[in-house]
Design goal:
Elements lengths: L6 E7 L5 E5 L9 E6 L4 E5 L3 E6 L23 E8 L4 E6 L10 E4 L10 E5 L3 E10 L3 H9 L13
Antiparallel strand pairs: 1-2, 1-5, 2-3, 3-4, 5-9, 6-7, 6-10, 8-9
Length: 164
């Protein structure tokens, strides 16, 4: 028997109450919308323009992503780019983006939120929901810079030629 790939989520939309549902994280992100099955069994499509955030949560989580601890109280320890997002409605949320820009999806960002744990694991933020993104700090090192520091310099095949 195959393992279940469905994940419990909260959908945050602009000017609406959060909605609880279940998604398949591999197939739910379509070209223009996110497909979600609500807790009452209805399949809905939420377009990226009306979606504020999609938070992956555990079974007993509360929809408090923007109310309880939206910011890091001190510099985070998780490696990545410490970023503050400003949404169209004025709400703000901190998150950690991966160092590797190739891991950033086309439609938005997957971030690790403040106080991440079982009750709020990962957050997807669509690009259309944002008015401003502010880099607050770089935490840890990327694989390329760590490799370069060990050997004294970055390998030439991975170095970008700038003045040739």
């Amino acid at each position: 028997m195959a393992a279940s790939t469905s994940k419990r989520i909260f959908i945050y939309r602009f000017d609406r109450q959060p909605l609880e549902g279940v998604v398949n994280p591999i197939t739910c992100f379509l070209e223009t919308q996110v497909e979600v099955i609500t807790t009452n069994g209805t399949l809905i499509g939420v377009t990226y323009t009306e979606l504020k955030a999609l938070c992956f949560v555990s079974d007993h989580a509360q929809p408090d992503l923007f109310d309880a601890h939206p910011f890091f109280e001190r510099r985070p320890k998780v490696p990545g780019l410490w970023t503050r997002f400003t949404f169209r409605d004025g709400a703000k949320l901190d998150g950690i983006l991966p160092h590797n820009l190739l891991e950033w999806p086309e439609h938005g960002y997957f971030v690790t939120p403040p106080h991440a744990g079982a009750h709020r694991q990962r957050v997807f933020i669509p690009r259309q929901a944002l008015t401003q993104t502010e880099l607050r700090g770089v935490v840890g090192t990327s694989a390329l810079s760590a490799e370069g520091r060990r050997k004294g310099e970055a390998p030439p095949e991975r170095q970008i030629p700038m003045f040739e």
